[in-house]
Amino acid sequence: MAEPPYGIIWNHLKKGESIPFLGAGASISSRPANAEWDERRSTFLPKDISPITSLDMYI
User: Fold this and answer.
1) 50 vs 33: CA distance, rounded Å
2) Which partner for 37 in 3, 13, 43, 46 could form a disulfide, CB atoms 3.0-4.6 Å apart?
């Protein structure tokens, strides 16, 4: 598989001709394995339904 054209992508980003889009898995790239998200204590971003379930206490 060929490497993506990083140079071309970078040039378009610098010129404002592209918008970076991070997929759904981007927020779990630095998440510890099997970690539970807690809005007050977590040092990593939530994944999928975690923020939704934390809204329960506000409803």
Assistant:
1) 15
2) 46
Pick the closest to residue 24 from 55, 51, 6, 1 (CA basis). Answer: 51
CA distance linking residue 12 with residue 2, whole number of Å: 20
Q: Which amino acid is at 5?
A: P
Would you give per-residue pLDDT tens digits along the chain (59 residues)? 899 899 999 999 999 999 888 776 776 667 778 888 777 887 877 776 655 555 555 55
Q: What is the DSSP string of the chain?
A: -PPP-HHHHHHHHHTT-------GGGGGTTPPTTPPP-TTT-SS---TTHHHHHGGGG-
